[in-house]
Amino acid sequence: MTMSNQWKKYLFWFAHEHVDFRASEMESILSMFHINICTHPDWTKHPYWIVNLPSETLVYKIASRAVCVKFCMELWANNTNHEDFHKQLKNYPITEIKKYAGPRQSFKIIVETFCKHFSQREKVNKIESFSYLPLEGPVKLNDPDTTFYYIEFYGLNPNNIPGEPNELFFGRWLTSGQRDLIQKYSLKTRKFIGNTSMDPQLSLIMANQAQIQKGDIVLDPFVGTGSLLVAASHFGGYTLGTDIDFLMLHGRTRPTRISQKIREKDEGVAANMSQYGKSSYYIDVVVSDFSYPLWRPDLRIDAIVTDPPYGIREATERIGTTKVNPVIEEHQASSHIPSKIGYGLPQIYKDLLSFAAEHLKINGRLVCWFPLFRDQYSEEQLPTHPCLELIANSEQVLSNYTSRRLLTYVKRKDPQESDEINSTNLTDFREKYFALRNESRKEKRMRKAVEKAQKRELWEKNNKENANR
Questions:
Q1: How far is the C-alpha of 369 from the C-alpha of 21, rounded, in Å?
Q2: CA dihedral 215, 217, 220, 226 (to 10 degrees)
Q3: Which residues share a beta bridge with 112?
Q4: CB within 8 A of 101, min separation 6: which ones?
Q5: 318 bridge partner residues
Q6: CA-angle at 202, arms to 198 and 206, nearest 5°
Q7: Mind listing the pLDDT tens digit of every residue in the chain (469 residues)?
Q8: Are the beta carbons of 191 and 275 closer than 8 angstroms?
Q9: Three-state secondary structure readout of the chain
Q10: Do residues 239 and 261 make contact, with C-beta atoms less than 8 angstroms apart?
Q11: Of 373, 392, 375, 245, the residue nearest 305 (C-alpha)
């Protein structure tokens, strides 16, 4: 058996969090790099993906973007039982092994388990079981020439761990995914954050689903503290944003950190971009009401990534008034601050999809969050537009009864006057959230009242019985 002129088998090992986002992120990355693979695995059933590829270059390309991937390796053997597994590894072409096992090439073997813990002694025993491999070089634990991985997978249920592993893997480590970016862009060390700043992992996943690449123009119309702009700039996107909250954009809101009493003078989105060395990718942010777009009709952008306000921890407002025929005196015009009225979610998403249909380039992407109540979810609730195709829909659970879904749309055609936007099925998340919360409080008060009455009744009964004695 020779490996020349053959595709090789590779294994991608995922971090076991945000499982529902794996498929959307990986499929976006494959599409972005024009990697056509006729495999459609169930990404949620296993923390790994085995795939045949024609070159290592494609592995490095995928890993250079994937936030959900821990590491990638060239797979030399995998099986469901130890005997067949070792037999398969022994039959791996010696010419391939010798490429990485010369007398001067250092190496180490890492033992990994999923859903089971091994002691150090057990790990050493596992390593010694590979003594038949022709690894002639010295063992080097820090920065060896070649790293090998041996992995035992024991399923996904920690409450029902089998005696033997479900599957075994051995291979040559190639590269890591982009998990280190989560720490690099951590909100704990970021200069400017707010109550609703998006965490870096989800921000980077959104940038991947938007397929942001170097030179793209990226807009966040509800920019807040600019977390999504930070992620977009990491991949080379030129970023700009708008928000109606003047105080937030100017870093004058109440500090989010408990230890911080007042905002520093230079806090703002620009300071975050400077902190990460991305100032050259930062266009600007503008105070603007999204319901009154300020853009020219011919503006075209590559991607929109955003998290619209839900009205829970931040207000959903637009400029307006309930007064009939309001009049502003001429002497008041220069200092006039427009009044605001509610901006319900159905209208927000109608405006957002209309804006995306008008201003995205063809095949440009809109990536946005959509809040909902889990027990009443159906796809009919999701907003639609004739020009936009919904290609990804991943859920992040927020509580027992609420979640939000990350929706990815692709613009397929330019809008027409006859286009109809479906937002009639959207429920106003804010109104229902607080109604349910008030209902829960009422039920809690009633339960306490009943418990108090029962205790009172029991106390009176005990007193009566004691008196009769």
A1: 13
A2: 30
A3: 151
A4: 107, 133, 134, 135, 136, 137, 146
A5: 341
A6: 105
A7: 344 447 899 999 999 999 999 999 999 999 999 998 866 678 888 999 999 999 999 999 999 999 999 999 999 999 999 999 999 999 999 999 999 988 999 999 999 999 999 999 999 999 999 999 999 999 999 999 999 999 999 999 999 999 999 999 999 999 999 999 999 999 999 999 998 899 999 999 999 999 999 999 999 999 999 999 999 999 999 999 999 998 999 888 888 888 888 899 899 999 999 999 999 999 999 999 998 878 999 999 999 999 998 866 666 777 766 665 666 666 666 665 677 777 888 889 999 999 999 999 999 999 999 998 888 888 888 999 999 999 999 999 998 888 999 999 999 999 988 777 765 555 666 666 666 666 556 566 666 666 677 777 777 777 776 766 6
A8: yes
A9: CCCCCCCEEEEEEECCCCHHHHHHHHHHHHHHCCCCCCCCCCCCCCCEEEEEECCHHHHHHHHCCCCCEEEEEEEEEEECCHHHHHHHHHCCCHHHHHCCCCCCCCEEEEEEEECCCCCHHHHHHHHHCCCCCCCCCCECCCCCCEEEEEEEECCCCCCCCCCCCCEEEEEEEEEECCCHHHHHCCCCCCCCCCCCCCCHHHHHHHHHHCCCCCCCEEEECCCCCCHHHHHHHHCCCEEEEEECCHHHHCCCCCCCCCCCCCCCCCCCHHHHHHHCCCHHHEEEEEECCCCCCCCCCCCCEEEEEECCCCCCCCCCEEECCCCCCCCCCHHHHHHCCCCEEECCHHHHHHHHHHHHHHHEEEEEEEEEEEEEEHHHCCHHHCCEECCEEEEEEEEEECCCCEEEEEEEEEECCCCCCCCCCECCCCCCHHHHHHHHHHHHHHHHHHHHHHHHHHHHHHHHHHHHHHHHC
A10: no
A11: 392
Residue 33's contacts (CB-CB under 8 Å, 6 or more residues apart) are 58, 61, 62
What residue type is 465 in one-letter code? Answer: E
CB atoms within 10 A of CB 17: 9
Terminus-to-terminus CA distance in the chain, angstroms?
96
